[in-house]
């Protein structure tokens, strides 16, 4: 009698890596909606960061602050000091508890503290409010860019990260236009309060919009939540009107908890240190010049309306810088684009120094605005791709924290622009840009077309 043959075992369906899932779901409405939501908040952050340069003449008029005084410098520094603490804290927390929670909390706090600054009755309370506003918005940077990098398909990631950074130009244009308009409606002693209040409102709109965004599937997987990660991907599929393959997600092997110290071990040490130096150098020069530029123009005899109109033109000059950066990061790569823009910024700082007429000052500062914001766009595309998922917001928080440290120092260094040491200040800034370019090249890694790293090495 013939024995029945044993059945062949049914092969388990292959697991799907999260990178492959994101690529298969493609680029669609979800990513464009995420870009708009994160971009709106990023524009609001730009307004909060830059508005003190526009508000300072009115604040000085109300509280009797002398030009270049310690109180004026502290006011410009307070937001950056808060961002330094916030970037380090919120970046670490987002890797522990998830991107979405921090995504919501930081925007809510930014709105509350921003409005508090608008009604501050004394300089001391205004400094506290600006520090707390900086603490809140310091967390949006590492979280927003990590979220965007982790939801966008590989082929489009660099472009979208530059697109997100380009909303900074929108915020700059809005705050300059708003300051200009308010200066025609209210006296300076009142206009600055309306400016601070208005700058907080875009964040409120962004907060409401963010409730519909799920947590990052990469972050969920790294924290041992595969069911939630699949639900997040299904949400992307639904919005994009595509289909998620009916196979389990590839879950990374269990790993010991990662601490910020991992940024300085093994292969991570070199890239963390070099990236921190790039962020520090670019930030010191950028904020050193542009935080004080409205006051510099005012000191040259321009009325407030002319200062705000000039600032608006400089903000518009940022847009082609971003457009070119978005093209170049996918054409020639992140690293080469970043180095090229930083080198152009170093040259631009000296051209600004040599400008001897109002037209030349406007032209050279517009060129600087173009090159510096192109450099920021390339840097924001490059940085999150260099950190693995378990450390991405921690790493982004650390390097952006180094930028905030530079931002704390930059108002004091930039004050030399008002006190007759123009050549010293601009030479220092040019050296910062050149050293940042050298550090960016020394990283030695190109991430264009590469999938995001998942494991800490």
From TrEMBL:
It comes from the Bacteria. Gene3D superfamilies: MFS general substrate transporter like domains. Its main location: membrane. The keyword Transport applies. Keywords: Membrane, Sugar transport, Transmembrane, Transmembrane helix, Transport. It is found in: Membrane. One of its GO terms (cellular component) is membrane. CDD domains: MFS_SV2_like (cd17316). PROSITE patterns: MFS, SUGAR_TRANSPORT_1. The chain crosses the membrane at residues 34-54, 74-94, 101-119, 125-148, 160-182, 194-213, 273-294, 306-329, 336-355, 361-383, 395-418, 424-443. Residues 34-448 form the Major facilitator superfamily (MFS) profile domain. One of its GO terms (molecular function) is transmembrane transporter activity. It is a multi-pass membrane protein. InterPro entries: MFS_dom, MFS_sugar_transport-like, MFS_trans_sf, Sugar_transporter_CS. This is Sugar transporter.
């Amino acid at each position: 009698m013939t024995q029945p043959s044993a059945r062949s075992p049914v092969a388990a369906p292959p697991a799907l890596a999260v990178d492959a899932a994101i690529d298969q779901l493609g680029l669609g409405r979800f990513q464009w909606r995420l870009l708009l939501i994160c971009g709106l908040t990023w524009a609001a952050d730009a307004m909060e960061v830059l508005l003190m340069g526009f508000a300072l003449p009115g604040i000085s008029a109300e509280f009797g602050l002398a030009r270049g005084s310690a109180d004026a410098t502290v006011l410009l520094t307070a937001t950056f000091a808060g961002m330094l603490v916030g970037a380090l804290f919120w970046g670490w927390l987002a890797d522990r508890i998830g991107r979405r929670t921090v995504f919501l909390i930081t925007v809510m706090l930014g709105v509350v503290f921003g409005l508090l600054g608008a009604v501050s009755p004394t300089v001391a309370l205004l400094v506290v409010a600006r520090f707390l506003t900086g603490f809140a918005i310091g967390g949006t940077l590492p979280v927003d860019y990590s979220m965007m990098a982790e939801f966008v398909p590989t082929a489009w990631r660099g472009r979208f990260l530059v697109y997100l950074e380009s909303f900074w130009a929108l915020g700059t244009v809005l705050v300059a236009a708003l300051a200009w308009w308010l200066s025609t409606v209210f006296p300076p002693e009142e206009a600055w309060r309306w400016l601070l209040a208005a700058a907080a409102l875009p964040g409120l709109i962004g907060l409401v919009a963010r409730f519909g965004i799920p947590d990052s599937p990469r972050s969920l997987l790294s924290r041992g939540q595969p069911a939630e990660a699949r639900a997040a991907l299904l949400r992307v599929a639904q919005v994009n009107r595509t289909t998620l393959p009916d196979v389990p997600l590839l879950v990374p092997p269990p790993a010991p908890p990662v601490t910020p110290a991992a940024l300085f071990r093994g292969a991570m040490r070199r890239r963390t240190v070099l990236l921190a130096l790039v962020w520090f150098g670019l930030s010191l020069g950028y904020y050193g010049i542009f935080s004080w530029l409205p006051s510099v123009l005012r000191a040259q005899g321009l009325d407030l309306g002319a200062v705000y109109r000039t600032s608006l033109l400089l903000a518009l000059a940022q847009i082609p810088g971003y457009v070119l950066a978005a093209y170049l990061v996918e054409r020639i790569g992140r690293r080469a684009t970043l180095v090229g823009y930083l080198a152009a910024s170093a040259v631009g700082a000296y051209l600004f120094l040599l400008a001897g007429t109002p037209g030349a000052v406007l032209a050279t500062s517009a060129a600087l605005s173009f090159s510096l914001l192109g450099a920021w766009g390339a840097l924001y595309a490059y940085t999150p791709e260099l950190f693995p998922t378990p450390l991405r917001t921690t790493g982004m928080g650390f390097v952006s924290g180094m930028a905030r440290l530079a931002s704390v120092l930059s108002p004091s260094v930039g004050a030399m622009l008002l006190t007759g040491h123009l050549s010293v200040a601009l030479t220092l800034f040019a050296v910062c840009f050149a050293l940042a370019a050298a550090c960016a090249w020394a990283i030695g890694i190109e991430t264009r077309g590469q999938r995001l790293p998942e494991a800490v090495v």
